[in-house]
Task: structure prediction
Amino acid sequence: MSVNHTTRDIDALVQEEKRLTALECHTEAWAEGLSAGIEADIIAETALATALYEVFRSSGEEVALSLIDRMRERVLAGEFAPSQSRH
Result:
C-alpha cells in the first residue's frame, strides 16, 4: 500500500521534527543549567530574552510582539500547568 504525502504534509512533518529537536536541545541546556546551580527562573528569563532578541533581530518587532501574545494566551489557557504534558 502506497502512502501519498502532499507537500503540506511533508512540510508539517519537517516542522514537527524541527520542533522536537529544538525541545530536546532546550531540555538538555535547561538540565545543564540546573546542574550548574543556576535557578530555574534565571534560566527561563535568559532563554526568553535570548529568544525574543533573535526573533526581533531576524523578523522584527511585530513578530516578536506576536510571539509574546501567543505565549501569553497559552499560559492563560493552562498549557504550561504542571498537570499538562510537555509542550
About this structure: Residues 1-38 form one domain.
